[in-house]
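User: Um, any thoughts?
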Amino acid sequence: MSFHQPPVTFVSQVNIKVQSFERSLAFYEDVIGFKVYEKTDKSAKLTADGKTVLLSIEQPSDVIPKRGRSTGLYHFALLLPDRIDLAKILKHFLQSGYPLQGASDHLVSEALYLADPDGNGIEIYTDRPASKWEWNEQQVVMATHALDAENLLAEDMEQDWNGLPAGTVMGHIHLHVAELEKTEEFYTKGLGFEVVSRYGPQALFISSGKYHHHIGLNTWNGVGAPTPPANSVGLGSFSLVLPDKASLKETVHRLKEIGAAVEEEKGMFITEDPSGNRINLETAK
């Protein structure tokens, strides 16, 4: 998990909006395996280890269903500590009957895909050792092959699934955006990430510290896709953790230099990418 701690810049938390709070809370506890860290009538902060919030869910008072063909969340991705943890949760999904949308071998990782009751995309994955990742100069080699589920389930599971393991982190986030040129400038020149993979003119993957990707960006909902209404189901915001206060100050300066708006609220800096995806900028505690 060295790619999710200083001096790397990484995604720490994702905040989503849901249509039915009680339905979503039941899903994230019973199906995904989160624990409640904090809860109100219409919102909850969720954790794997009881200390670190990875996901928050909220039901806006005037919520409307998820809008199609818009910018926002493609999926958030929970990174499990070990391959056996992925085997346990796959077995859990199969036993519970909850439908998966996909299961892939990306060479750098093995991943399961599903959606919550509102259509918010979720990836649950485990990384292969970074020493086995292949790089072509500055580009990491990734692919999308069918996951060998039989091989995964052959892991020696002495214990059954018991929720998300304590070492789970928010591995990455993948976003729908309206275009890639200004978006790439925002995330590289502004936030300081490096492009580590391109998929033609429709998608790129960026990271810090030579991870295979901390953020994915795509135009699969169409070039020029609109930003959804603020009360729509979907992404509320996500948090980026920068190494220290000096890095945060430099990042805010770079964002302003390229014309991005940055606001400060209660000691936190908040910005939006060119597609309206809201980002909270924080420093490692």
Notes: The two ends are 17 Å apart (CA to CA). The first strand starts at residue 10 and ends at 17. The chain is about 20% helix and 35% strand. The domain at 2-283 is CATH 3.10.180.10 (2,3-Dihydroxybiphenyl 1,2-Dioxygenase; domain 1).
